[in-house]
Automatic annotation (TrEMBL):
Gene Ontology annotations of biological process type: proteolysis
HAMAP family per record: Pyrrolid_peptidase (MF_00417)
Similarity section: Belongs to the peptidase C15 family.
Name of the protein this chain belongs to: Pyrrolidone-carboxylate peptidase
The organism of origin for this protein: Anaerococcus vaginalis ATCC 51170
Known EC number: 3.4.19.3
């Protein structure tokens, strides 16, 4: 099994992005699966283009994208990506699209086809906070997740999804009341997620990951 794993470069005045730090630290072989690591720039259009180039080259069975979600306290396994770019801040190329469709010929949204509930449960079993997220936002992470699922349909038989991780403790030294998670725990969580993906076939768990609002 080939797993394409992506992390982002730092953005929004941060010096570090835990997603790429974590990707670099993961083993290149996990339970027999080969892990191919790619750094993706936090740039709307380019992120999808680089992903597609690597899909053509590597022909992965699974695409797992990791991103930083500043302000979130748990590992968040994303359920859905929507067909819209709506930026509050500029990407690393200075672009700030507002209400632009990602793909004219794409669906309004795509659901992750990874076992998202099972992943959350397995991470929690190891005493690491994890949750389903019902929105990956409207910035570059949502864009990349949307592209991953659009391209998974285009290139066939690819499972794809996205996991957001919190800030690192060193990123919140001057951000009062902002949660963080150390790299060791995020790394353990993503390892568990990958093992769950490798060993899973069939239906996801039927347990709630919903929210009232
Ligand atoms: N997080 C941003 C983009 C890159 C990253 O790591 C996001 O959540 O959209």
């Amino acid at each position: 099994m080939k797993i394409l794993l992506t992390g982002f470069d730092p953005f929004d005045k941060e010096k570090i992005n835990p997603s790429i730090e974590l990707v670099k630290k993961l083993n290149e072989k996990i339970e027999g699966a080969q892990i191919f690591k790619i750094e993706i720039p936090t740039v709307f259009k380019k992120s999808g283009e680089i992903l597609e180039e690597n899909i053509k080259k590597i022909k992965p069975d699974v695409i797992l994208c990791i991103g930083q979600a500043g302000g979130r306290s748990a590992i968040s396994v994303e359920r859905i990506a929507i067909n819209i770019d709506d930026a509050r801040i500029a990407d690393n190329d200075g672009k700030k699209p507002i209400d632009e469709k990602i793909r004219i010929d794409g669906e309004n949204a795509y659901f992750s086809n990874l076992p998202i509930k099972k992943i959350v449960e397995e991470i929690k079993k190891e005493k690491i906070p994890a949750e389903i997220s019902n929105s990956a936002g409207t910035f570059v992470c949502n864009h990349l997740m949307y592209e991953a699922l659009y391209l998974a349909e285009k290139y066939k038989n690819i499972r794809a999804g996205f996991i957001h991780i919190p800030y690192l403790p060193e990123q919140v030294l001057n951000k009062a009341n902002t949660p963080s998670m150390d790299l060791e725990n995020s790394l353990r969580a993503i390892n568990i997620a990958i093992k769950t993906i490798i060993n899973h076939n069939g239906e996801d768990l039927k347990i709630s990951g919903g929210k009232i609002s």
